[in-house]
Amino acid sequence: MEKLKNYIYGEWVEGTGNGIPLYNAVTGEQVAVSDTEGLHFEQALDYGRTVGYNNLSSMTFYDRGEMLKKVALYLLERKKKYYELSYKTGATHADSWVDIEGGFGTFFTYSGLAKRMLPNTPFWVDGETQKISANGTFLGTHILTPSEGVSIQINAYNFPVWGMLEKLSTSLLAGVPSIVKPSPYGSYLTNAVFQDMIESGVLPEGALQLVCGEPGNILDYVQDGDSVLFTGSANTGRKLKSMPSIAGNAVRFNMEADSLNCSILGLDAKPGTPEFDLFIKEVRTEMTTKAGQKCTAIRRIIVPEHLIGDVQNALSKALDQTKIGNPLSRETRMGSLVGKQQYDEVVRKVNILKTENELVYDGKHELVDADYDNGAFMSPKLFLNDKPFKKNISHDVEAFGPVSTLMPYKDAEEAAALAKRGKGSLVGSIISHDEKFIAETSWKMASQHGRIFVLNRDNAKESTGHGSPLPTLMHGGPGRAGGGEEMGGLNGLHFFLQKTAIQGSPDVLTAITKVYQQGAEKKYADKHPFQKYFEDVEVGDSLETAGRTVTDADIVNFSNVSWDHFYAHTDATSLTGTIFDKTVAHGYFILSAAAGLFVSGKKGPVIANYGLENCSFFKPVYSGDTITVYLTAKEKINRGVKGRNIPSGVVKWLVEVVNQREEVVCVATILTLVAKHSPFIDLNVKNVQKIVRGLTETTPSAWGKMSPQQMIEHLEHGVLVSLGEPEADKCFTPEEQLEKWQDSLYNHRKMPKDFPAPFLAEDETLLELKHKNLEAAKQSFLDNLQRFSIYYKENPQAEHMNFVFGKLNKEMWELMHKKHFTHHFEQFGLI
Fold it and tell me: How far is CA 677 from CA 120, 537, 595, 604, in A?
């Protein structure tokens, strides 16, 4: 039987003991063995703290985000084999989708957050700069850096993939190396995904390690700077948290534990309403998805006392209709528990619940293509607690399977009180169309819940469901649920980051944070900063504008254009008792006039205004005042660009407007999209002429079979096709892929060297030569390039077919020619 290998200190290592046999939850057949005996855990932790930390922490947040995306794409291409293994854990296809592709989705989400919101530096400036001296020469701010240690992540058996990836999404993005310790049960699936993560070659050395089996004494070696993330029972979690190595070394500890989550049916949601039907569907889903083995599953069903019978009957019918059995069968809607050991534990908890509650539904389902003897199958079980304020077992005991308990309430006060008797839950849901009931109940129960999910007819179509944690929202809960806070968007990174206050002068803080601080030295140059590409802009690049004197006509005209006739701008007789001496210029006029002073009218790398932040007006500007603007590059944000957008980054510019007395009247931050340098040549005819001048009959090619003249005539043919001479009659790219190919014209990726022309046979000559020699071919090519420029000026809406990219307009043809020319000029070493 295959023994799962562990991945530690950069190599795959097999345990030396007998290990733990792992069984197919459906058939009972043995699948693999997990074994960690003989592993040197102390060496593994030290390897992570040194090699892993040095490699990960030196990367920027932006680059780590790109790393997550590449890993997720690599795994997505191989998902089929993960599903095949997932079925052996008892999971249906729908269960497996949540686990497998839900895990990949977490990586994609955090990659997107990083590329939109995190800096292209290894540290992260957190919050605003604080002015802590009268004259602004002494400032303070905070930066976040990766905690200098290793993260040990102990995961539960119910989500072998998502459980690993949702923790790694934040730790890897934060720059902290991790050791993953999945539950042995289902670890053969975790192992397969982990192997591909390593084989992808995307992760730096030491970033990840894997321990498949018992954790041994791994936690004895944790130290200050390390962290432990635990998902499992509250009892085990408390024991781990109190270990001397954890409690005594200030090791960060995050726990996600037991959770007796509830769902409340609103007083308004009577049978026949959409909310009643949604409630029954949601409860059934949460009882049967993953066979109830979810930390977010509904364990307590809180229902108006007069609707208990209706809910019991409707839910029983819905559960009767749920097909249970082999996950490989299309009929199956609920699979098995993960194994016999887990089955026995759920039976034990069910027997405890029976001592105080009535079992009102115990499904007698016939299994689909499976049997109860070999598989770990359990039918759904529904209890009734008729006195939920007196009988407490259903508030204390969680049967981690398809088991839930009905309980009645009288009013919103009682509903919230019952919800809180779970003593801390990951999620509670309210299903109602009564906004007053929802509002009153939700805030009263919020203190004991990590998430509150409200469902009704208005959001049902787009709702993600009671049991679905989302990467952008916190996953965790107080009290019994462990007090943990995983994911939650960028907040999830804070657990792995050290927050440090930085104090110093504006110049010092600018140098440390790479964000311009007011009062720091400005860098003036003759070149307008808006004429610089993203890579060339430096924090501190500045412009001092000419002055502009504000007139009465400016104020009147702006009032008329904007329709802003606020009295302070238009009525001098109404200013008594105000802060104004006379009619004042509009704040937005000052900002607009400032833009008029600092923008560059000449076309350049600045593509568009992207936004405005933190605009404040400090002093009034009156007719006769003269304003001057200081524009300074404050911060650069790298930016992932998709689709038909020019590769660019965001530059934040500090705008300081002063009057003739050098008093600051307005401060704002504007954001601009700034293009990045293109690696492709300019189509300017003179530029191309200089390049081809170096091409001779004997110039060798770095790849391919073209001669120099064939290459020039090939490019000329492409130019002629873009003029419709001749009009290409066919595109060889399938219609469903055409948009993707056209989008690729906009990115900065070069054409592949080995790209086969789809319109030519492999042994066919590219073109029969039509010019008498290379020099004649060059001249004809340049003449037609000049024609191309003129043609699209005269016919800006023209479109012509390309063999690969389909019908292209002026912009697309220019992008295509830039890439194509660059490709072949590099082929012959001309650029």
Answer: 17, 11, 25, 11
In the chain, how long is the greatest CA-to-CA distance?
101
Catalytic residue among 256, 275, 282, 286: 256
> For the chain, give me the number of helices (H) and strands (E)?
24, 31
pTM score, whole prediction: 0.86
Tally Cβ neighbours within 10 Å of residue 397: 20
Do residues 262 and 302 lie in contact, with contact meaning Cβ atoms separated by under 8 Å?
yes
Q: Which of 212, 262, 295, 666 is catalytic?
A: 295
Name which residue leads in pLDDT, 145 or 577. 145
The CA-based dihedral angle spanning residues 146, 152, 153, 156, taken in that order and rounded to the nearest 10 degrees: -170
Mapped onto helix, strand or coil, the DSSP state of residue 492 is helix
Residue 517's alpha-carbon distances to 138, 662, 739, in angstroms, are 11, 18, 44
The distance of Cα 105 from the centroid of its chain, to the nearest Å, equals 8
pLDDT at 752: 87
Q: What is the pLDDT of residues 613-632, one digit of tens each?
A: 989 999 999 999 999 999 99
Average pLDDT along the chain? 93
Pairing status of strand 252-256 against strand 227-231: parallel
Distance of alpha carbon 90 from alpha carbon 18, whole angstroms: 25
Tell me, yes or no, if 295 is annotated catalytic. Answer: yes
Question: Is residue 296 helix, strand or coil?
Answer: coil
For the beta carbon of residue 30, count every other beta carbon within 10 angstroms. Answer: 12
Q: What is the pLDDT of residue 795?
A: 93
Q: Can 666 be counted among the known catalytic residues? A: no
- Cβ atoms of 213 and 187 within 8 Å: the answer is yes
Mean pLDDT over 203-231 rounds to 93
751/760 Cα distance (integer angstroms): 18
Percentage, residues of the chain above pLDDT 70: 98
3-state helix, strand, coil in the chain (%, to 5): 40, 20, 40
Q: In angstroms, what CA-CA distances link 453 with 263, 431, 586?
A: 9, 8, 44
Q: CA-CA distances (angstroms) from residue 372 to 56, 352, 572, 577? A: 48, 22, 88, 85
The predicted model gives 640-661 an average pLDDT of 90
Residues 115, 60: Cα–Cα separation, whole Å: 11
Task: Give exposure, 130-161, as e/b (b: 16+ Cβ within 10 Å).
Answer: ebeeeeeebbebbbbebbebbbbbbbbbbbbb
Tens of pLDDT, residue by residue over 758-786, are 555 444 445 688 999 999 999 999 999 99
SS3 readout for 365-401: CCCECCCCCCCCCCCCEEEECCCCCCCCHHHHCCCCC
Cβ neighbours for 153, distance < 8 A, ≥ 6 positions apart: 164, 167, 168, 171, 178, 179, 180, 181, 228, 229
The mean pLDDT value for 533-551 works out to 95
Task: For 231-256, write each residue's pLDDT tens digit.
Answer: 988 888 889 989 999 999 989 999 99
Structure confidence at residue 312 as a pLDDT band (50, 70, 90): very high
Residue type, 447: S
Terminal CA-CA length for the chain: 58
